[in-house]
Amino acid sequence: MNVFTFIFVVCLYALYHVFEAYTDISVEQQLAVASLLILAFGIPHGAIDHVLFFKKNTTSQLKFYGAYLGLILLFLVGWLVEPLWSFVFFLVLSAFHFGESQLNDLKLKRSFLRPVLFLTWGLTLLLTLIYYNTAELIGHTGFFKDTAVFQAVYQYEFLSEAFIALNALTVGMLFVFIKRGSFDWNRLGGELFLLALIHLTFFLFPFIIGFTMYFVVLHSLRVMSQEFQFLKKEEDAFSFRDFLRLLMPYSLLSVFFTLVTFWLSWIDFIPVSIPLLALIIISTITLPHAVVMHLFYKQS
Questions:
Q1: CA angle 171-175-181, nearest 5°?
Q2: Do 16 and 204 contact (CB within 8 A), yes or no?
Q3: Does residue 124 form part of some domain?
Q4: What is the chain's pLDDT, residue by residue, as a tens digit (300 residues)?
Q5: How many folded domains does the chain comprise?
Q6: Domain-located, residue 27
Q7: Residue 25 included in any domain
Q8: In a domain? residue 10
């Protein structure tokens, strides 16, 4: 069991007792806690994309920031034109990104199978989350007019079949890869144990809590650890304090921009509900971040 799985187990145990003691925790309270954790850990894990990129590439800053902001604007246009398909694309993009951050260290003899495994693992994660919380998601998305369109994704019959098929496919692929010597039995046991924990978490807790637990502990902290270890190898004197200093500027800027945008939505200056606005902000930032991290994993 690695440190992130251990932290996740501790959080799972603690939260279970919290929900046992306080059974009437409102959605608003869940959102408040989840937002604080995502702002504190989720945003910083993508705050040094530029640093990671320029460690391995000689592209000019103008081209990098132009491409980075260009992807954000392109996805923003996509949301304005086709919100449903933009949502589907975001789910697929996130699935690949989650799978890659989890399994990027695997050395597969057939490299073309790596993206297939990443996508399959990530889709299994997201479909498991959605499957266990379908009714809750339908209720949340139906509350606002501009999010009701996403209910088309939550077709229970389709989700049931996809849930079974993808879980079976992911576990089957892991067994195939161990048979081919891509990793050992200890790693297989760890991955299966983690998948079981994810199932338990998404089954026990509401969507907001379950996703936040995964995103903060198993994704954001893991990615920041990978970033720190990489920078430490590049410079022996690099310290955790140096790492925090690197994270701060763009993290604070992103938090400020997000809060201002939410406030503009709250006063109806931006005619978009806060849930949809949050989804748009997260997704448009995720696209260039996922591209940079893909290059980072590929070049490391």
A1: 145
A2: yes
A3: yes
A4: 688 888 999 988 898 888 888 777 888 788 888 888 888 888 898 899 999 999 888 888 999 999 999 999 999 999 999 999 999 999 999 999 999 999 888 776 666 778 888 999 999 999 999 999 998 888 888 888 888 888 888 887 888 888 999 999 998 888 887 766 667 778 788 889 999 999 999 999 999 899 999 999 999 999 999 999 999 988 888 899 999 999 999 999 988 988 898 888 888 888 888 888 888 999 999 999 999 999 999 887
A5: 1
A6: no
A7: no
A8: yes
What is the extent of the structural domain holding 108?
3-19+41-299
Structure tokens, 150: 């996403």
E-only strand ranges, the chain? none
What contacts 178, CB < 8 A, 6 or more positions away? 184, 185, 187, 188
Q: What is the SS3 string spanning 241-288?
A: HHHHHHHHHHHHHHHHHHHHHHHHHHCCCCCCCHHHHHHHHHHHHHHH
What pTM value is reported for the model? Answer: 0.91
